[in-house]
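User: Okay, second chain of the day. Same drill as before: sequence in, structure tokens out.
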Amino acid sequence: MATVMQKIKDIEDEMAKTQKNKATAHHLGLLKAKLAKLRRELLTPTSKGGGGAGEGFDVTKSGDARVGLVGFPSVGKSTLLNKLTGTFSEVASYEFTTLTCIPGVITYRGAKIQLLDLPGIIEGAKDGKGRGRQVISTARTCNCILIVLDAIKPITHKRLIEKELEGFGIRLNKEPPNLTFRKKEKGGINFTSTVANTHLDLETVKAICSEYKIHNADVTLRFDATADDLIDVIEGSRIYTPCIYVVNKIDQITLEELEILDKLPHYCPVRYLFRINLLLFVCILLICMMCYSAHLEWNLDGLLEMIWEYLNLTRIYTKPKGMNPDYEDPVILSSKKKTVEDFCFRIHKDMLKQFKYALVWGSSAKHKPQRVGKEHELEDEDVVQIIKKV
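Assistant: Same drill. Structure tokens below.
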């Protein structure tokens, strides 16, 4: 373990000393590939029991989506869990109050959202320090991550947490790279691109592939990809997760700083302790910021709305034959799997065996009702009636 960590440090030091230009792109690409392999080796659980989930981290996934609270110790994650879900998670003024994973459930718009209060992470978590491995491993299972930041501490904490998550293969608010990587038996490395490239060339691609002992492959770029993008595709274990930055204690910063936060993407400034500056709160209202106080329950719905937007869930209402639609208990589908087939499988895995066709009312239907097959893609708040084989 120590040897691997020393190798990682040596490579990071060499990368920091290397100037970034076209002449060094090949060398940097090779170093990045070596670094990715070492981190995978460091973080992969061993059969000797050292890399398990750990006591209190093996929380069964439940509900329609999972949201994780990630941040440094004592930034207010437990208070946020308590207020949003009613679940008790110990709160105190000292650090590392939460030592295990505490789950709670939010019921919102008919969906059950599991909210996890994860212990505070420390710098170096991606390298196995503290319980960082267990915390970030659990974060990888989440459909959305809330990074909770303390406004009275440097916002550089945001970059530190991002670095820890990135080192564990979590890509925040990003889409998978639009490139194709296909191994083959012979023919060498074939590199093609449909756009102009400023980061990758054939020699850099060959160097990265050789580090993975890949000597025959087709690589096709459809955007200006970097060496990191290619390494992510080759590794194949990256998680692309939406993220909201929840900035707590905003009444302790200036109005100018608050206005800057308002312009940043994916941010939600909040305040949920007992003390609040009334004058500042009036100013917040005037500039229509997305702020709330959990203690006074100011704009909790606004935060939940933002979580709902980032989860991008689809609600489908069922309609039994001869009855009205059930608007109280929707079937929840993800935005990437929302066909009639996905709907049937969500209800019961054997329903497709009896499926004949479906009647659909809603925005996905050309007329009401529309008779569709199992490949039809549904939209939010559609009404579906399944017709079974006789």
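Confidence is low (pLDDT under 50) at residues 47-56, 91-97, 273-296.

User: Thanks, on to the next one.
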